[in-house]
């Protein structure tokens, strides 16, 4: 399996034969705007209040925390449809039971502004959205952007956007997937070693020194040096100081939600490997594929790729890739052989995902490419503005990297 340093650069471009325009993204919050496209609108009656909010500079979870604290409710009582990045300006919807629209509209919070509030009959849940609409400004593009950008967008509009998760799923050090891989192998020292990380992967000098101290066997010194915001690392090191060498007990200090995230990062990494292997033909089907229907996500076995290719060309269906898990539906033939090779590279198998303690990963299928609707662009000086929509679960970075060729 590749190391964490190279994990950030595994994703070949679909439009590799066209140069990128370069440039800088997220220079200011207004340069990266995203708005949820809901699956349904609130009906106007019911005991749940749907708040459409605009947040800037904070994550979805931080926005939930601030709203819950202000209203004196549990964070678990706040429903949401999807997670959004901290960088940029985001409009998304939350739901809170037994909250009046009038009180919701009166909320004043740092980094959060309530735009509208209406009643509905049920709590908002993860996945209750069609997709997201983006407006993104890229600054400092090359002089050839006026020729390059439309050429790339034409290909993406026809063939689709590679459905990469990308490096944002691999954590600050780019190694979350490696922690997940060690978990599947029940390699507890490997889990701790990967969690603590690589001193070369962080810029903060004290943080880097803490990692180096751990690698040199100076656990107490590592604990002393680790930044306060590295809570999981500090909790693990505290247990190692009290019980040297007991790595399984030390790693048990990590919150189950984070453990699930590491396993999810591994799934994402392995899926991206499959997309990378098929990138040159990502809009084509193979016999043995499990094709995904874009209208509802249902999958079916492709017994004759030639017969189904017309539906793929019309973007009705696409080949799917694996979110590996113990109950994942398997493709057949050469498609399954490729996916088995990915598992062999990681050193795992489907049954390994059947972990105890609420960590079981059942697996699912995910399309290798997604449609991008409403693709448009404009230029002003050395800046390019892009507008487009993507289905839920896909990432704008997958489209942006094709345009810029810088990451």
Describe this structure in words.
This protein has helices at residues 60-71, 101-105, 145-159, 176-184, 188-196, 205-215, 219-225, 231-242, 247-251, 256-278, 305-313, 333-346, 396-404, and strands at residues 24-25, 32-38, 48-56, 78-80, 89-97, 112-120, 129-139, 161-162, 290-293, 299-301, 317-323, 364-367, 369-370, 373-380, 383-391. It is an alpha+beta fold. Strands 1, 2, 3, 4, 5, 6, 7, 14 and 15 form a nine-stranded mixed β-sheet that branches. It has a four-stranded antiparallel β-sheet with strand order 10-9-11-12. Strands 8-13 form a two-stranded antiparallel ribbon. Helix 4 crosses helix 10, helix 6 (205-215) packs antiparallel against helix 7 (219-225) and helix 7 (219-225) packs antiparallel against helix 8. The protein is globular.
Element-level helix/strand string: EEEHEEHEEHEHHHHHHHEEHEHEEEEH
Q: How would you name the CATH homologous superfamily of the largest domain?
A: TruD, catalytic domain
How far is the N terminus from the C terminus?
A: 21 Å
Computed Rg: 23 Å
Biggest β-sheet, characterized? 9 strands, mixed
Oligomer: single chain
Look up the CATH topology of the largest domain.
Pseudouridine synthase
Number of strands: 15
Q: Could you provide a short overview of the structure?
A:
This protein has 407 residues and is an alpha+beta fold. It is 34% helix and 22% strand.
Any key phrases for this structure?
9-stranded mixed β-sheet; 4 domains; Pseudouridine synthase; alpha+beta; 407 residues; disordered N terminus; Hypothetical Protein Yqey, Chain: A, domain1; 13 helices; 4-stranded antiparallel β-sheet
